[in-house]
Amino acid sequence: MNTRSLLAMALVSLLAISCTDLEIEATDSVLTDESVGFDGVNAEAALNNVYNDVYGQLGDQANFFALNEVSTDETLVPTRGTDWGDNGIWRTLHAHTWSPTHQYILNTWNNLNQNVFRASEVIDSRSSPTPQQAAEAKFLRAFSMYFVMDFWGVAPFRNVDDGPEVNPTVLTSAEAYDFILNDLTTALPDLPATGPSAETNRASRAAANFMLAKLHLNAERHKGSIDNTDYQAVIDAVDAIAADGFALQAGYFDLFKQDVDNETIWWAVTSVGNRIWNGMHYNINAPDNAGGGWNGFTTLAEFYDSFEGDPNSNYVGDGQEERRGWVPDASNADDTNLGIGYGFLINQQYNEDGTKLKDRPGNDLVFTKELPGLQGNGEATGVRMIKYHPVNGSFTSHEIVFRYADAHLMKAEAMMRMGGDATAMVNELRALRGASPLGSVSEADMLAERGRELWYEFWRRNDMLRFGQFTRDWEFKDPASVGASFRNLYPIPINALLSNPNLVQNEGY
Amino acid sequence: MKNKLLMRLFLLPMFALLGSTVYAQISVSGTVSDATGPLPGVNVLVKGTSNGAQTDFDGNYSLSDVDPNATIVFSYVGFVTSEVSVNGQTTINFVMQEDTEALEEVVIIGYGSTTVKDATGAVTAVTSDDFNQGVIASPEQLIQGKTAGVQISQDSGEPGSAVAFRIRGSNSIRSNNNPLFVVDGVPLANDTSLELSGTTFGSAGARNPLNFLNPNDIESISILKDASATAIYGSRGANGVVIITTKSGRSGRGGSFELSSTFSVAEAANEYDLLDAPSYLAASTANGFDIAERNFGANTDWQDVAFRRATSTTNNLSYTNNYGDGNIRASFSYGKNFGIVENSSLERVTGRLNAQHRFLEDKLKLGLQASYGRTNDEFAPLSGSAGFRGDLLGSAYSANPTWPNDPDFTGTGGLTSPAALLAYTENLGNTDRILVNFSAEYDVTSELSAKVNLGYDYTDTFLSSATSAKALNVDQGAFGNGVAGVSQREATNTLLEATLNYKKEFENSSLDVLAGYSYQKFDRNGRNLSGFGFFTTQLGDMIDDLVSSADAVESQITGSYQQYGYAPNINGTFVNRLFPEILQDNIGNTTGSRVRSLFGDTFDSFDELQSYFARVNYTLADKYLFTATMRADGSSTFGDDNKYGYFPSAAVAWKINEEDFIGDNVSTLKLRLNWGITGNQDGLGYGNFLQRERFGGGDVINDGGDINIPGTSSQSFANPDLKWEETMQFGAGIDFGVNNDRFTATVDVYRKSTTDLLLRTISAQPAAQPFVFLNLPDSEVINQGIEIALGYDIVDQEDFSWNANFQLTYNENEITSLQGQFPAGTIRGQGLSLAFAQQLQEGQPLFSYFLREFGGFDATTGQPLYPEGDVQKFVGKSALPDITAGLSTTVAYKNWTLSAFFNGQFGHYIYNNTANAFFTAGAFRGGRNVLPSTLTAGESFDAAADVSTRFLEAGDFVRLQNATLSYNVPMEEDGLFDALQLSLIGQNLFVITDYSGLDPEVSVSPGGGDLLNGFPVYGIDYTAFPRPRTISFGINAKF
User: Residue A468 gets which letter from DSSP?
Assistant: First the structure.
């Protein structure tokens, strides 16, 4: 054999050794054979992932929370000098001047729809979920799809087998309503009957009933009609929740502690840091958040004034009801409250040793009820809201999602809309919260009561829409948007329209 | 015999091309020498035949079968190729003349080399003689500004920071647009540098992937610009190819040492003229702010705290020996480069061995290039992602000057003190890299040679980031707890290549055929750790505790796992397993934990690339040159329907100066035309074409130290169509030289069209992921431009010479087709969340600014005016320069040489994110320091600072990048040294620009997770690490 053939042999054998089929191997992820397409997911792990996603979305100050709260008469995020300008993203929400390119509208669209798809992957029989896993996934899918329907009036749907080339079908609001109803009713028998306990962070029969009540109560908006069977379904669902052990409980701000209570139907394992610190001034701090607050979110004078009590201050003894909270002053600021109030912070704020807090330019930190506008704000404008208190931990992972007081008011509202009188039920709650009883309860009273009880719990937009008040005028709303009923729905994000030709932009955008 | 048959089948077409001629014969022998003595390794060839030899160690050669009327050609790298007529002589001794320009003439191209005169494509080589001098952290800086059509900008002045390297514009909207780097024949992976993540103030972009190379080891850098040159690299060639060749021992006859040392001093070239404490307080009073709340008593110049005068040293020792049958070069270097920002440095140790040996009468050539490099990075606490608190420089520009320089100072009102960042954060990186290339080349016949090339490229990276429990106002969870992160990765690339090369000279033409096979595998594995709640505040101990806690947990897990961790809210230690099947496990309490919460996430994947390629060069009458290439690239990152891509190219060149109708005065006149298709698969990533399930990761530990145990989710959609981006390029060029190339000019025009743009685009929801990786249908980016390079030896005398080289590139970029509009250009800072400054849209160049049109401040309210509305629009400006230019000139008089190199960029705009975030009236009200001019602009203290043209500035500049004065010490004949050179080098001596920031040549890189739509950021200055002004003294001795 000469050198040539040696060389040729070497070359040929090299080629033989190294020729590859260019397939990747399952070394750090589980691969699905392309010819098979969807092959199921691990139901337990994938379900946990959906929970984590939903928790993360609920804890965020932006996106889901912003779309539900900052767009209402309850919350605004004023631009304070250079702070919180954020390219106008907060101002347009409050002024009702958002456009189809609004980043939070897009993010929320992506987040909620992604939950729907990932839940569908768990539910699919190829993922072999246990009946309870499938039921939990159905609950999470119903929750997510409900808000897609609520925000946009449609709900796209994709089968788990469909690749990127398939354009998702688009369910009308009525179709989505039926889809959600079906998810909840088929999930109910397989969900655990968890009562008040630390385990209410996972889907339970009560949580599904709560969602059912919401669905029926808002049926007119979603499926175009509502009748007494819907209202009766609300009442039945709330009664079922009560049957699982949930009830109203006294001690309003104790409900937002990490401890087990009778009201918490569903809580999210997500940090309450955003809820606390968004509104606190830079110089308001806690031992586990020495950096202080982020000085953003406030409420409007009109909303603050809807509570009982002195309109200009909220110190102890100012005649306020329990839900408006109180602000410590020199006489009672101490370690047990860190000088930080509960509820609505107005007027002079104090340190935990009772000294007056200052703002950064050096003036006394006096939170004012009035704001000059959405822009041009100083550090102290606006009444601040705080429901979770830092003495219980600045970043505790325990945020309330569903609460029995909401269910209680839903039942009262259903009774009222069926022609009954909700006064007794409303007053039952008010008595518990240290508010004087109402003589009668009108629709407007009901909406106001829901606002006072459920502020900052992301139902405000949904409530205002149900009571037809979302397009009314309020401070800093753009005059052109007052009465603009197309703003009852958010625009389909421009990038979503581009991605799916089956989607049609909502009227008016 | 089967193998023989196979080989014949393989070789038959080539043999068919062979011709043979018979001559009358004599034998010729002799000795070849140069001015210093016998010269080994000289090629001696009978012209027009393949009959040749090389001189031995003593410079002797002998040839048989020589036609008495033949001509013998003597050639050797670095010497003038000469021809001698035999005229019947049997002994011909010859003295070679050194050719000072010879080195420039050889151009390394893909899988071979050519000469400038014979190149058909647009290829430029820069050799060590022309490299930039001074403190050179990485190889690209050696050739910055030296080559037309190439724009090299270091992202910042940080030692070892990433480099934006653009050859003929930016083609891709998503990938980093950097070229393919090939070091000694080994194509490098594009992801060998890791991003520093897990820092508490945001993450920093990846480092320069070439940091491991010692610039002093580099012989030449070839830049392949057009498609006919790069198509041989197929799906990785679209952004151009840069071939780095390290020095061999060929020039060191008899063995010689070279020692070089550089000592440098650097300082900030520019600082902001901020208010000092008295003027800060005076301005506060004047504007009605309560001094009592703003005066903390000190007078601190925070820029002095953050910046420093930094010294650096580099030392190189090399040994070269050319012993006739081979040569060897060994080198060792140590350098420590301190950055002008505190807590930043780059330490590098490298060792290299290059060896070549010829066996079997020179028929077999074995070559080895082996290098080891260790880089130790110390990263200043800087980030393009820093939010409202800013990073070290952001806080240094904005910190209240009356704060004391005390890391424990508590009166900052929630803002971050630079002192706390410097004292209580630490970010380190250690990288070991081994690059070995072994080649065996065998001359089967005088026409046919075969080569096998084996490459091994191993990188082991350890990045750590720690913020201690003492760090006030650095991050929400850090104070009182301490947080730390570690990223570890091993990247192994293996290469196997086999090529056959057939060269044949005919009567009036020559043929050069290359065919080859290449296989490359890219393995990646490693882990990311994060820890919360440390028992120590010593930063180094925190990292040790994190690693030992993770190691302890890993040792207690049986079976495979992707993730593990524990936290106060979890009982025991959770383990997330993928194999044999997905399982969320809990292994109970583990021991050895030294942190309160721990999360570990591992990864392990590989990709493969398999390619077949061929090139044919045909030269007719030494006037007409033809090149055609073809490559078939298969990649495991492509979808099943597109496993292989095919990348052809063709080029012709006409050496007009060889025509009779051209006078002798014209030494070069060559016309070149080329066409080709290349690909880009950068950024495609692992397994994006099929459904893949994995546990989610990221920032799992929350600010309170709790963990939500991650579940699994689909990582991507099945997309069998996924493939490379494709670039089709046309080009034409002309090379011109007169008076023996004393004056030369090269002009190239090109047009590149990139289609099938890869984008992480929005999924049609509902979907498993918000984004899906796909090739955008009907998408196209066009780059077209002109490159001009001029060279002139103005004075060319024995004792005095002066030359100048000028290069200029004009490039036009446009997205000619794109569905949808994509915000890009992340802006960061207080009140700037979700703000962006650029948008990708059809009809606009890449990196086009999309801003509010700023109309000054309202005279009464001081609020900003936006006459065209409070909406963002295209403003007709882009971050891409229209023109990049470089001018270098060298004057030599006797033993003195003075050279200067200027570079400039024109027509681009910079978004001054630093000013947007920090230098506004609102920032001053919030207690921050500002420029004096901030307070006189008429801006209300309540005004919002939205992104607008207020912060957009022209970025045109001219920089004296480098000036070098060197002196060759005259040597005694028998002295200790053979040569001794002393040099004084100044870098970045001045910049002429109207830009108000510190440096007009900037580009910060936010971490990958912070990029809007995944698009890279370009042209945005957010507290970039400024380029230093550096003075160096160098000594270079040969002995």
Answer: T
Amino acid at the residue B899: S
A292 touches chain B (CB under 8 A): yes
Helix, strand, coil % over all residues of chain B, rounded to 5: 10, 50, 40
> In this structure, are residues B638 and B674 in contact, taking their beta carbons and an 8 Å threshold?
no
Of the candidates B784, B995, B1033, B891, the residue with the CA atom closest to the CA atom of residue B149: B784
Residue A104: what are its φ and ψ, rounded to 5°?
Answer: -70, -35
> Residue B205: what pLDDT?
59
Contacts of B927 in chain A (CB under 8 A): 360-361
Q: Tell me the Ramachandran region of residue B760: left when phi exceeds 0, alpha when psi lies from -120 to 50, beta otherwise.
A: beta
Q: Using pLDDT thresholds of 50, 70 and 90, give the confidence band for residue A135.
A: very high
What are the chain B neighbours of A258 within 8 Å (beta carbons)? Answer: none
- The residue among B393 and B715 whose pLDDT is bigger is B393
Q: If 0-12 CB within 10 Å is exposed, 13-18 middle and 19+ buried, where does residue B508 land? A: exposed
List the Cα angle B958/B963/B968 in 5-degree steps: 160
CA distance A10 to A17: 11
Nearest in space to B1028 (alpha carbons), one of B530, B307, B230? B307
For β-strands B425-443 and B448-467, DSSP reports them as: antiparallel
Taking CA atoms, B844 is separated from A350, B270, B817, B911, in Å, by 54, 34, 9, 17
Tokens of A76: 């605004």
Buried b (16+ CB within 10 A) or exposed e, B697-730: beebbbbbbbbbbbbbbbbbbbbbbbbbbbbbbb
Contacts of B838 (CB under 8 A, 6+ apart): B823, B824, B825, B847, B848, B849, B850, B879, B1019
Q: Which residues pair with B588 in a beta bridge?
A: none
Q: Please name the residue ranges forming H helices in B591-745.
A: none
CA dist B531 and B465 (Å) reads: 10
Biggest distance spanned by C-alpha atoms of chain B: 106
* B831 with A397: Cβ contact below 8 A: no
A250's tokens: 């006294």
In the three-class reduction of DSSP (H, G, I as helix; E, B as strand; rest coil), residue A309 is classed as coil
d(CA B927, nearest CA chain A) in Å: 6
**Pure H helices in B254-341:** 277-286, 291-294, 302-306
Residue B240 phi, psi dihedral angles, 5° rounding: 85, 165
Output the six-digit token pair for B245: 């060749």
Q: What backbone torsions phi and psi does residue B953 show, to the nearest 5 degrees?
A: -135, 150
Stretch (H or E) spanning B222:
strand B218-224
The amino acid at residue B884 is: T
Token pair listed for B743: 């004056």
Measure the CA–CA gap between A221 and A211, rounded to whole angstroms.
15
Q: Does A27 touch chain B (CB under 8 A)?
A: yes
End-to-end Cα, chain B, rounded Å? 55
Two tokens, residue A455: 């502020």
Hey, is the C-beta of A46 within 8 angstroms of any chain B C-beta? yes
As a whole number, mean pLDDT of residues B981-1005 equals: 88
In this structure, are strands A264-271 and B725-738 parallel, antiparallel, or unpaired? unpaired
Q: How many CB atoms lie within 10 A of CB A263?
A: 21
**In this structure, what token pair is assigned to residue B713?**
């989710």
pLDDT tens for each residue of A345-386: 999 999 999 999 998 878 899 999 999 888 888 889 999 999
Q: Terminus-to-terminus CA distance in chain A, angstroms?
A: 81
d(CA B637, CA A41): 23
Q: Which residue of A has its CA nearest to B602?
A: A28
| DSSP E strand stretches across B621-711 | 624-635, 644-655, 666-680, 692-695
